[in-house]
Amino acid sequence: MQHREWLWWRGKLLQLCCSCSSRGRDIRAASDLKALQCAVVCHYLCLCWCHHLLELQLALQFMALHIEYNCLLLLLLLLQPAPGPPPESRTCRAGAISCWDLTLLLTYIALVAGTATVYARNKRAKDRQLLDAQLGLEAQEPLLGMAAVPGAAAAVDGAGGEEGDETEPLPGDVHYPWLERQMQTAYTQLGELCARKPLHVILGGTLLIAFCLLGLIRFRLETNPQQLWVGPGSRAARDKSAYEASFGPFYRVAQLIMSTTASSNGSYIGTSGMPGIVTDANIRLLFDMQDQVDALSASYNTPDGQPASAALTSVCFKPFGTACATQSILQFWHMDRAFYASEQAKGKYSTKLTPDYCFGHWATQCRSAFEAPMDPHVVLGGFSTGPDFRNYSADATAFVITYPIDSAPANLP
Q1: What digits encode the pLDDT tens for the residues 55-76?
Q2: What separation, in Å, do the N-terminal and C-terminal C-alpha atoms of the chain show?
Q3: What is the Cα–Cα distance from 360 to 332, expressed in whole angstroms?
């Protein structure tokens, strides 16, 4: 029986491959090259996938269900018109570098040159002051004939001290560095202006501040985080716009993580030293938390001014029907508390969807509410991925719930 099913699936795959190739021949009138590309790609995918998946009945079923969609998607991508030439760059360039880089380079050179010039002038001024001081001391030395007169040295020293007091540098004096003299002059004039015309200064300052605030006329509160981090003219923004124009807006992600603590009760202790989270009490607690999340709502006004409210079911990503594509361990039981309770209440010799059973059959019997497999690696956390891993029930210490949010313009804040 298994051999007959295997032959049936192999024939189905070959039939689908031939069907995809015939589609490529049908469009040869429109574009021979694209038809040949489609046929070659479809044959290559079918042969590769058949070679790797013929021994897996589940994988073959998945291939038979989705290969038609893959072929149609390849046809769509190959038949799209070739993109036009890239827009001409309007950036200013000076040879091999841009004008902006050249401006920064020249500014840096000017700052370095200015700093070196100021340092050299200050050093030269200090050397000149030191030389003048030395010449002044030599001029004040007593004559050879005065050396024997008692008190002559003291008199000369006293005269020199008085002369030093009388020639102490004042603001604006040449003894100060050039930059300091300019700042002293500017601030002195500014202080005199404020003292003579206080009303004019206040009025001028107010007008200057008002002029600087003119930019608030175009102020707009940005609530889209993508616009805060990605420029509207950047390559990433252009690629995102092209993708969304072909396949629709990409969903956003919100996560809820529930983890155990050192004082939590659990049947197992994980390799991290924390108790395991996969228990009946924790799963029922997660159902309670999910009910609270589903009950959350926010009020807003529609573009025509009508009041409305939004909940998770109205903004979640729904790729397969009306069920939200929530990634959670609760999807093993279709996010339904009653279904979970009925499965746990089955008899000992009945096949019941326990957590341990679903961890081993997550791709078959324990599919989600939107009929997609729910990988335990996605909905559990805190477990080791090394050789010391035992099983999910013993090592998992966290539930990871992921809520894909539809990024349609109506759902953006």
Answers
A1: 444 444 444 444 555 555 555 5
A2: 56
A3: 11
